[in-house]
Design a protein that fits this description.
Blueprint (H helix, E strand, L loop, with lengths): L7 H28 L3 H25 L25 H7 L2 H25 L3 H27 L19
Helix pairs in contact: 1-2, 1-4, 4-5
The structure holds zinc ion.
């Protein structure tokens, strides 16, 4: 598989998958938050969907005319979005509280930051480095938005079926 740090075309191919995946997942998370009547978190997810879609469009413009390598999309799917034994989608949405949704978003934003940081450090192509560094900054902003929203959400009770946090021992 081609390394995103190797060439501009490879970088574009990877970054496009990441940004398109993020835009799609945020739309779905926003729909799930509508079902929970949490307008504030739904609005944040719609805004983030828009920002990631903007990234994708920017990458499409920049890479127009370049032959992009084929990348395995399964490496770029969001962690924790669906359980491995894929239960029906509606069920996942129904049970996903704002707290869980924000945790999933945070984990995946941090993954995006780490991806672009890794490329920026590894690459010897100045154009790839400059672009990857720009994306690091923007994805870090997204981490900040999600963290701010998480600080405002009350976590669900520890016996919640989909709780992603491991139980902590009492102090
Ligand atoms: Zn992002």
């Amino acid at each position: 598989m081609s390394d995103p740090a190797d060439s501009l075309a490879s970088f574009y191919a990877h970054a496009l998958l990441i940004e398109r995946e993020a835009a799609e997942r945020y739309e779905e998370l926003a729909d799930a938050m509508d079902e929970h009547h949490n307008a504030a978190v739904a609005k944040l997810f719609r805004r983030l969907a828009g920002l990631e879609a903007e990234h994708a469009r920017d990458l499409e413009r920049r890479s127009a005319g370049l032959a992009l390598p084929q990348i395995a999309p399964w490496d770029y799917r969001w962690d924790g979005f669906e359980p491995p034994e894929t239960s029906p989608h509606e069920d996942v949405h129904y049970r996903m509280t704002p707290h869980h949704a924000l945790k999933i978003a945070l984990a995946n934003e941090l993954r995006a930051v780490a991806f672009f940081q890794g490329v920026a450090v590894r690459t010897s192509d100045p154009e790839v480095r400059a672009l990857a560094s720009t994306f690091v900054g923007e994805e870090e902003e997204h981490v900040g938005y999600v963290n701010d929203a998480l600080a405002r959400e009350v976590p669900p009770p520890p016996d919640w079926a989909l709780d992603l946090d491991p139980p902590r021992p009492p102090d």
